[in-house]
Amino acid sequence: MSAVSTLPTLRAAFEATGSGAWLMRAIVACGLDEANGYRLALQLGDDRMRGERHATEARLIDGEVELIDTDWLSLARHRAAGLPLVAAAPYGAIFGGLVAPRGGALRSLADLPGKRIGLVHAQDKNWLLLRAACRLRHGFDPAEVSHCIAAGSKSALHDALCGGGLDAALLYWHQVPGLVAGGAFREVCDLAGLLATFPVPRPQVPTSFFVCHEDLPRSAPALLQGFARSVSAAAARLRADPGLWSRVSGVPVGSWAGAALRRKWLARVGLAWAPEMAARLQELADLMAPPGAPRHALPAGCLAAGLLL
């Protein structure tokens, strides 16, 4: 029996088009899973919903896989609903962009009232961040003064914008450069840049994490510690090697869109974690909470002590 066949397997599910999958592909391509004492079994799918949950979240909850990626607000909602999920490793500050047709009437956040704004769903962190920024900077809430259209998935949202049914859309970050490069659309704002307008402490903190069931850190702590080390190593290699980044993403870095996409990736992924960042995430969640909505409190235990690197 080979040494590789005796390693524990970690089953992970990701959207094929997301940068989480790029990190996972880099782990496998560079042998960083086996070097850290486990074998990564990667399942890639689309961004469709299973009922009220994203497909990857449903796979984790149904026990089909042990690991996915999600943001801290979704993790808090799951914990509050009684689902025992926990963050196992930091991913990055993952926010999208507001994109509008070039030459249209929407040129800044101040132009949002009365416009048709597309979003994935009402709990999407991009939408909550945009609403909070408009309240802070312009004194209005787009949920109250704009026509908000939930598409249900990022691919459907992209298609709705390209089909002319929207004045703007809150796209996921990796969709933006390719669309802008075609010349028909412009990025009104990068939502990650809106964080600079928020009265929260610096430096930038990871807002998305690799997430597992809370039983896994207890039953296989070495497995998750090995995974966390491999994620950190993969991010470092992808930051240092544009060629590797291009191979795992499938995006040529020599094009304008490829270079723009890599700049966005570099600004988002590979952020270090420190324990005090949990308090900063709570402050950000409080600022993003819509008026009158329940507070997105981070339940005890959702950020796994000893695992986040």
From TrEMBL:
Q: Which Pfam families match?
A: NMT1
According to the lineage, what is the superkingdom?
Bacteria
> What InterPro entries does the record tag this protein with?
SsuA/THI5
**Name by which UniProt lists this protein:** ABC transporter substrate-binding protein
Q: Which organism is it from?
A: Aromatoleum evansii
Q: What is the lineage of its organism?
A: Bacteria, Pseudomonadati, Pseudomonadota, Betaproteobacteria, Rhodocyclales
SUPFAM superfamilies noted in UniProt:
Periplasmic binding protein-like II (SSF53850)
Q: Which residues form the SsuA/THI5-like domain?
A: 70-242
Q: Which Gene3D superfamilies match?
A: Periplasmic binding protein-like II
